[in-house]
Amino acid sequence: MQFDKILKFLKHISKNNNREWFEKNKPRYLEAKGLYEDFLEALHKELLKFDESLAGLNPRKQGFRIYRDVRFSKDKRPYKVNMGAGFSAHGKMEQEPGYYIHIEPGKSFVAGGLYMPNPENLSKVRQEIDYNANVFLKLLKAAKFKKYFNGLDDFDQVKTAPKGYPKDHPHIDLLKNKSFVVSHYFSDTQIKDKNFVKQVAAACNAIKPLNDFLKEAIS
Prior knowledge:
Layout: H1 3-15, H2 19-24, H3 26-47, E1 83-88, E2 98-103, E3 108-114, H4 119-131, H5 133-141, H6 143-146, H7 172-175, E4 180-186, H8 188-191, H9 196-218
Antiparallel strand pairs: 1-2, 2-3, 3-4
Helix pairs in contact: 1-3, 3-9, 4-5
């Protein structure tokens, strides 16, 4: 995998985030995109070893567009400065648990779980945690999981107890979450390592019990 070319392109577009530069350098973008899709194809083969629900996906189609939607954003830069992709049973993690891979100079990571579920699914996940807290806590404390993650990311939480749950609920910190996501970061050096695909797959393997719990909750 030639991640050095991908990272170099992303560094350059972050400094030249305009249509004129992009059009002049579109061959570089297409080369970087192709290399990233090569990586996704290799990763998909590894993911299928432990998650058969991904079998119907075309890995080269799982990447997200580089073009930003600026309609409702104060940030009018036209292009993303990362390459991201999502793998879940029916596509790109839309209202279902899955795995997300993000490549960005100095900020690359793999993540998984359920991102911003709709109110119905959020209610179902909270109820499942309430009913089966021991099962949920056990998967968060598993050695394979803790090798990569320190519990759920806390970027998306309500400030007080969610409706229907007392403030002194024994697992209120878990129930406050509006997203149920974990993430593990990789350095640029790790990305360029020949074993990077297997490292990402191993982190995803550690995520799978969380995804299974979440799938059961919203099914």
